[in-house]
Amino acid sequence: MPEITAERWQELYDRVFPQVYRALVAATFDRERALDGLHDAFEEGLRHPPSDDRNLEGWLYRVALRKTRRGLLHALRETPMTDHPSDDPTAAILHRLEVGQLLALLTERQRAIVVAHYYLGLTQEEIAEAFGVRRGTVSATVSQSLARMRERGATHG
Amino acid sequence: MADGDRDFVHLFVRDLDDIELPPRDRWRPAPRKESYLVKTSRFVLSAAAVAALVILALIASAGLRERNQVAVTPSPTPPTTAPATSTPSASPSASGSPQPTTPPAGAISGTLSYPANFVPPLTVYAVSVADQRIFFSVQTPRYGGDPNPSPSSVPVPPGGATFTITGVAPGTYYVFAYRDDNLPNFFGGPALYSKFVLTCEQPARAGAPIPSGACDSTTADHSLVPVTVRAGETVTRIDPWDWTSQQQVQQGNLPPRPR
Known about the structure:
The complex is a heterodimer.
Chain A: H1 6-28, H2 31-47, H3 56-67, H4 71-76, H5 89-96, H6 98-103, H7 108-118, H8 124-131, H9 135-156
Chain B: H1 3-16, H2 36-68, E1 106-111, E2 122-128, E3 135-140, E4 162-168, E5 171-179, E6 191-192, H3 195-206, E7 227-229, E8 234-235, H4 246-250
Parallel strand pairs in B: 1-8
Antiparallel strand pairs in B: 1-4, 2-3, 2-5, 5-6, 5-7
């Protein structure tokens, strides 16, 4: 597998930026945090590029999430987004979207995993590897999140 | 993937793709400009790191030197007036005494001689036989003779010009003396405590018989004599009188002058 050079890294970054950015916005409900995280991940990739370009979206998504100020560890302690209304207009935009309303029911950690699975298209194995958790944890998180969203969807359906 | 899952995928893609992207020029981080404070801090940190390395190197160097017990004179400044009774000797501090953790030191003493009506200023060295990097020394003033060209010349004491090297770590040493003045050295080398001293010069001064032929200029043995120093003891009569060391110098049989 050829090594990812700086030029190659920038090319790959630009290619996956839109999807990873939108995923990060959906996971964090904060456009600036998403962008800051991506910038940091970009620089991280320049210093220590991933070993290959497989699952590049997953790598960038994970590193950017980690780089956001609160990150996943903080997200573990977070309550659903609806309990902490954001001043970011992104939240308002998301709330106008059906998926945004559903994601708002989840914790940030749940959102990060659900978005990675349903939007970035990462498998549960890839998410487990990217986030450093067991596959069973990913599976359970996805199931709980779906149950919660379906319940809400049924309520409002 | 279950139908419900497909629905979610469709929903996510449909909705999240509507999220507006930032302007293209914001996709990558802007080049970071270092503030003056950051630049200054970086310079100060670099300088501090270099200084710390230099200090560590100096400490390590000093530690190694002390462990090897390499004595670096200078000894006390030669007296400008004649000493009352005693002759110059190396104080422990002046002769580079070993560390307190080393065994009790010994000493080496003897008298000085020079084939003239004076004794030039000398540095008497005791250099370890085992490791020539280890040495102890003492400086002596000019004794007797015409005050010119050295007004600081002191009278020769009644017992003769003597020296004592104190603080000598137990071990075996070669003893020799170098002139400290810059005048031409007629003899071309240091004065040795050699077999010639033991066989010829000391017996001659004591009025003892001299073995036949042993002191002939062509056959005399000028090789250095090892001197063993024991803890707490002073080895006496170690007289570096043999100024005819040129042969030993030429043959490379002498340790280099310690610096």
